[in-house]
Amino acid sequence: MTIKALHEALKNKKVSAREVVISYLDKIKEKNGELNVYLEVFENDALKQAKEIDERIASGETPGELWGVPLAIKDNILIRGKIASAASKILGNYVASYDACVVEKLKKAGAIFLGRTNMDEFAMGSSTENSAYGPTKNPREASRVPGGSSGGSAAAVAGGLAMAALGSDTGGSIRQPAAFCGVVGLKPTYGAVSRYGLIAMASSLDQIGPIAQTVEDAEILFKAIRGKDEMDSTSLEIRNSKLEIKKIGIPKEYFSAGGVSAFGGGDSLDPQIQKTIDEIVKKLSQNYEIREISLPHTKYALACYYVIMPAEVSSNMARYDGIRYGVRQDAENLAETYKKSRGSGIGLEVRRRILLGTYVLSAGYYDAYYARAQKVRCLIAEEFKSAFEEVDVILAPTAPTPPFKIGEKINDPLTMYLSDIYTIPANLAGVPALTLPSGAQLVAPHFEEKKLFEVGKFIEHG
Ligand code: GLN
Q1: In angstroms, what is the span from residue 266 Cα to ligand 1's centroid?
Q2: In whole angstroms, what is the distance from residue 247 CA to residue 68 CA?
Q3: What is the pLDDT of residue 264?
Q4: Which of 173, 194, 341, 419 is catalytic?
Q5: The whole model's pTM is what?
């Protein structure tokens, strides 16, 4: 059932919130053991929330669009009174003392939280294999990864273990798992959704966004969580009403060898994905003008991201020292306590990024790496800006390959990083991007999510 369908059914008293929640809880009981989608299920709270909804409906209130909608929440988004571990051991006992802005909004809107979902530790990864609590499996094929880092949230929606979900996207973590699991995922414009209460990974790139079964559902959720929040000074209130979509751009570099990666290798688009994109182009051409565009700096995006992101990660991770948050390993003195707590609480991929980030920020290297990467980031953002003077929306793949096997890439970080070559540019530029179940990705100018929904719906139904 979609959010839209549930809303109708509740209004017409065809179903109760309790029945719906119970059906999801049953599905979770049946499948979570195998898939490892949820790290924790809030059975009692969900039933209590459903009861409240049913009572309000019984007393004659008209249900809002999100009333009774059973959602899965990524484990890096704070829900007051619940553990938020970011799938890390070091936060294994951390109980959130406040609601994230998005959670507060969804609570007020009457949504129900089924549980917190598995992810790559601190959102660093592309397969959910970097969780300290075991990998999540792709519900469509259990030998394969669901993508990451919001793998649990995408798998929950794809496997029928939640009606919709929230994820976070720093370099592709909503869109790549959405593509791998065959669902819809939106990375909003940077600043469209408050990051207050999101466990930070790389603060200039992080955004919270919806994962849903349909474009319409993603739109409903996005509208419920967006907006300026005084607790996040980077958030903004912008509503674009002008909607005129005539031209769709296809970046030629995305489809030519060497066009998207300066590393060589790994960037040849899988023929299956090329075929999907070709079919979508054909469909879009019935309604829109298709134009080839050029984004020549795309090939530096991955390298740029892997300087800026670890730099921010190294700063954000400094707070997990065993003193202020989470699990402490007691030792003789303060320095030893830090070392032991971080050494045993933080996983290898996160550690790699702390090391990389500390290195690129260190005296003597800052200009060569971090400052230069910031310049490249500017060029990439400028490039999108000029592209959007020519076209209204850009069509791209989300990932270069279909879901890979569990274990296939885990020992080869560079190959793993290459899974994000098509998603990272939107984070660097701050523009919104929508992934469709087919794996196609649409990109729009800042705060023009509406264009994504419009074109997304055309592809979905048109
Ligand atoms: N997979 C990318 C990374 O490992 C993106 C992660 C994310 O968006 N949180 O950094």
Answers
A1: 17
A2: 39
A3: 53
A4: 173
A5: 0.97
